[in-house]
Amino acid sequence: MFDYHMHCAYSADSHTPLQDQLAAAQAAGLREICLTDHVDFDDCGMPPADIAARDKELESLRASFPGLTIRRGAEVGMRDEKSAAAAWEYLKDRDLDFIIASVHMVDGIDAYYPEFFEGHTQAENYRRYLAWILQCLPTMGHYCVLGHYDFCCKPAPYENRAMTYSLAPDLFDGIFRELIHSGKGMEINTSAWRDDPCWGLDIYSRYRELGGEFVTVGADAHRPFQVGRRIGEALDLARAAGIPYVATFQAMQPIFHKL
Ligand SMILES: [Zn+2]
Ligand SMILES: [Zn+2]
Questions:
Q1: Which ligand has the shortest distance to the CA of 133?
Q2: Which of 107, 116, 149, 179 makes an SS bond possible with 184, Cβ 3.0 to 4.6 Å?
Q3: Annotated domain spans of the chain
């Protein structure tokens, strides 16, 4: 069991000490995790995580968690070429294992805030979010997977928050073609699934159909009880979509595990 999307107090939006997230991972029976603290130069207002300090603390803690493989990563918020270059400048000497490329800000508005949803239909809002991903991905040279394609579903004020392929076949296909062409993958992020059934089978099936070979799985935990949440269902979803591998990463290179 892997959890490849996790934050701790080095991220401006988490108060959980690193040690507590590692303890939660061990308690959840995870075999391998990757710390993916926020490094945003996308004008979201959060200072980037001090990755050097985090990794220094991590080295002092590793021995206390035998049996848990702990990789070092970051989640980079996308905006444009300038923000991508600033993030890489910040990260390039950190020798990270893994980088997630994510969209949080859409045209200057945080897709987690109510303002994002005002004045548009659900379909329009979801399409705006996906269109922004498609526009931003080519600006990123250094990343491994696209994070949470369904981030804007998390706070969405709708009865059925699920995102479906039929909502935006053009945008999904564009995103998948860009990822596959660049040798990158999709993440299955379980954090938008609250009390809902998991969603995305139609979406990941299409990713596979276009040639997608692997996913990573992550719960996007900011607090200990979220660590490893619904990862089993994420792996089942990947299998149901026919995706052959779940990947872990070392030094930005994928290691494939047959599903
Ligand atoms: Zn994120
Ligand atoms: Zn995250």
A1: 1
A2: 179
A3: 2-257
